[in-house]
Amino acid sequence: MPKSLTHSQQITKFYTLVEQASCRLANHFTPELPRERVLSWLSQNVPKPRLQHILRVEQTAIALAQHHQLAVDKAAQAGLLHDLAKYFEPERLLAMAKAEGLALTEVDLADPHLLHADVSAIVARDEFAVSDPEILAAVRNHTLGQPGMSQLCCVVFLADSLEPGRGTSPELEDIRQACLDNLYQAVLQVCDRTFAHLINHHRLIHPRMVLTRNWALQLSSDLTTPPPKKLNL
Ligand SMILES: [Fe+2]
Ligand SMILES: [Fe+2]
How many whole angstroms from 226 Cα to the centroid of ligand 1? Predict the structure, then answer.
């Protein structure tokens, strides 16, 4: 029977999987959606540091999808497309969300930047003719999640928070370890970490993320892994 990995071995495994995912990145794209075309668009619409983040999210999403035996091509594409609208002005985000008929909450109106995930999915569809509902959902849910979201959505949601450029705090490393064992447990931990940050900075919490957190908690409640460490609020 194989020996289970220690905490630090599991974290090392996370970084190894992400590193290995750098091979043949372009192979996950199609003639209809060439990776180069998306990169060219991004280079005109997002600053360089953000582009580096996007590339690391793509790579991390590939690694997690491979590890959990999910659709790697879809994870790669959603990873590369996830922040298309990151630098759109608040007025543009609101206008596009309204034109799409999205139901806006008071939190969206107070902080339209939160709409960049939904709007990135609109841009993916309209600018790059992406029609795959799983890819579009993974882009749409990368910031706030969504109760009942697919494992592919969980992978992109987690890749956005856990890509290696996000830092190496013990909390983040704990989540990197958790995401290899159970995606839902890791989603729960990301939500809890985000809430702690928002509460500490006296900021609004989006109701959709509360729903995502409750959903992830229920799915992860029968895990054999211990609950995450208590957060300092
Ligand atoms: Fe984002
Ligand atoms: Fe991102």
Answer: 29
Span 168-205, pLDDT tens digits: 999 999 999 999 999 999 999 999 999 999 999 999 99
Q: Give the CA distances from residue 161 to residues 5, 81, 112, in Å, rounded to whole numbers and listed in that order.
A: 23, 15, 20
Q: How far is the CA of 154 from the centre of ligand 1 (A)?
A: 14
DSSP SS3 for 72? helix
Domain that holds residue 50: 7-163
Which domain CATH number covers 38? Answer: 1.10.3210.10
- Total number of domains constituting the chain: 1
- pTM for this predicted structure: 0.92
Does 176 map to a domain?
A: no
Inside any domain, residue 221: no
Q: For 65-82, what is each residue's pLDDT tens digit?
A: 999 999 999 999 999 999
Going from the Cα of 231 to the center of ligand 1, the distance in angstroms, rounded, reads 24
Q: Give the pLDDT band (50/70/90) at residue 224.
A: very low
DSSP string, 139-198: HHTTTT--TT--HHHHHHHHHHHHSGGG---HHHHHHHHHHHH-HHHHHHHHHHHHHHHH
Give residue 166 CA to ligand 2 midpoint distance, Å: 10
Q: Calculate mean pLDDT across residues 146-174.
A: 97
